[in-house]
Amino acid sequence: MDLRLLAVAVGVLTVCGAEAQGEEVGVARYGHEYVAVRAAIDSANTAWCEAYEAHDVAGVMAIWAANPVALSGEGQVAAGREPLEASATAIMRYNPVRATVGTQQVWLVDGGTAYEYGSYTITFVPEVMDTVVFTERYVAEWKRQRSGEWRTRLKMGLPSP
Description:
This protein has five helices and six strands, in the order ααααββαββββ. By secondary structure, the protein is an alpha+beta fold. It has one domain (3-157): Nuclear Transport Factor 2, Chain: A, CATH 3.10.450.50. The longest helix is centred in the N-terminal third of the chain and has 22 residues, at 32-53. The protein starts with a helix and ends with a strand.
């Protein structure tokens, strides 16, 4: 088994519920590099939420690496930028759109790979129906790019309990 997958599997089973506790464990385990990686992930997630709310498809796509893969908790697969962009565009047809991300834990596997566990919520209001609230728990694989930025290469939605 790939050690990174094992790290995710073990990590998902031992997730700390409190964000502050997760950071304390991260710093103890990985040192100050963890703080920089966590800040980069938090910043990217904030920019992603702001882009959704501003109906900025390019901003939403900025979080993703060159060849992203998104797996939904319901078993759908979106491989590549085109299907992810189409999904974001479809959601942005509605106004208003609100997005939030709650990171619960980050694991730094090496200097170029990190895994994040958390949940996100997208809320939008279609014209012909009540407000729609979509929430999904996920594990994301982040990769450090040559530029030094961190981008999501894989987002795996977890099935609802």
